[in-house]
Amino acid sequence: MLAVAYSYLLKYWCIIIAARSSEKWIIRLINGIIEYDQKVEFFFKSTSTHHRSQSQTYWNTVFIVLITYYVITTVIIWIFHPPQSMNVLVFFTYIFQLQYFIDFTIVTSTYFFLTNLEFRFQMLNNLWKLYPIEIFTIPGGWTCSKITMFLEDIRLLHAELSELLKIFSVGYGKMLLGFFVFSYIDILFLYFLLIHLSLDEQGSISVTVTVLITSGLGKTIAFIMSIILATSRVNKELYYLRLIRISVLPVIIKQQIKMFMNQILVFESYEMTAFGVFRINMNLSITFLLLIMTGMITVIQMKNHPFSLLLFNDFTTFWDSIFT
Question: Which residues cross the membrane (predicted)?
Answer without folding.
Answer: 58-80, 92-114, 176-199, 205-231, 277-300
